[in-house]
Amino acid sequence: xxxxKDQLYINKVIKGDTNAFAHLVDAYKNMVFSxxxxxxxxxxxxxxxxxxxxxxxxxxxxxFKGDSKFSTWLYRIAYHACLDAIKKNKNHNNSVEIxxxxxxxxxxxxxxxxxxxxxxxxxxxxxxxxxxxEEERSLIWMFYFDELSLIEIMEVTAITEANxxxxxxxxxxxxxxxxxxxxxxxxxxxxxxK
Length: 194
Fold this sequence. Notes:
The chain is mainly alpha-helical. It has helices at about 5-15, 20-40, 45-60, 70-90, 100-105, 105-110, 120-130, 135-145, 150-155, 160-190. The chain folds into two domains: about 5-90, Orthogonal Bundle (Rna Polymerase Sigma Factor, Chain: A), CATH 1.10.1740; about 100-190, Winged helix-like DNA-binding domain superfamily/Winged helix DNA-binding domain (Arc Repressor Mutant, subunit A, Orthogonal Bundle). The longest helix has about 30 residues, at about 160-190.
């Protein structure tokens, strides 16, 4: 399942060529940092989690069997490293900006937000997402922003398919409710002033 190029570097590392690991780091550092930043909401914390992720991956590379893509295996390590960091630091900063891709992915929420300037919409959407519990927010990020398949999310989180579908459905429904509750009054007051 993993790419031939990734497997080539993995084999080199396992055989003792530690420099070959730099190619894997270069290929996946943005993915790992992006996930870490979204989950921890802190640049410094994300850099630390990213470093920890690659150290854990290096130490456990011999355990990678190729049953899934290397990127999925690495994503799983990063996801759990983020959860560990969040548990250690309950007072993490919740000021991460929401990426515009979310708006394209969640059409029903986007239709509610039409007519509001893009910057205001981004702030409101970010505020709504931050009201979701950590697990639900992470699932929304993985599915919509990172565009992971259900199978990849199952591999990362160790949640069964049926349970994952239920959790995603509930998270979307909860997010839609939060958006309706928090955004609709602002739209009404905005247009009421005109």
